[in-house]
Amino acid sequence: MVIMSFLNVYGHGKYNLDISGMGADIKHCQSKGVLVSLAIGGFGGDYSLPTEQSALDLSDYLWNAFLGGAKPGVRRPFGDARLDGVDLFLEHAAPDGEHYDREEEGLALDGDASLPVAGRVALDTGVIERIHVRFYGDPECGAYLERQWDSWWTAAYPGSRIFLGLLPSVEQGEYWIFPKDLYYGVMPVVQQSPNYGGVMQVAHR
């Protein structure tokens, strides 16, 4: 799976971005069985869903601009290429009033979360199909990984597939896991979980 990032402003803006040249690349990946999703949110603070209508508006925009829909006046940045889903990259804690439960209508949703769980409001809706947990970038993420995997994630979200998010190399950032420790220490534990989904690697470029 390839996740492109980020759409970091929610709402009914006028998005004139034309990257339709990427459409052929998206279709090529999909023809090889590789899913392609769009990450929304990110490290900024310009995104929120304070009302039910704002959630429905965002869902409508994502469906018609990036996924399987088509609507007059809604520009499709990737041309006629249709993405496979949406990844919620929620770096900042959301207020309890956020309406992520309404955003799922018609969308295939993934969740990308770190420790501590900034995106818990969205994850607790129960509509997230896949949760990519970032076990890097923070000392709390790497410490007692196996224990956190069980108590914080697989047990808390039994209806979602949980993916172990790791850095591909020590050059990519802090708290990289040495391959031997990963193979012999971490993987035997996480793979026992009934909702274990796989490993996610993040390449920062």
UniProtKB/TrEMBL annotation:
InterPro entries (alphabetical): GH, Glyco_hydro18_cat, Glycosyl_Hydrlase18_Chitinase
Superkingdom as given in the UniProt entry: Eukaryota
GO CC terms of this entry: extracellular region
SUPFAM superfamilies: (Trans)glycosidases
One GO-annotated biological process of the protein: carbohydrate metabolic process
Domain GH18: 1-205
GO MF assignments: chitinase activity
Protein name: GH18 domain-containing protein
Species lineage: Eukaryota, Viridiplantae, Streptophyta, Embryophyta, Tracheophyta
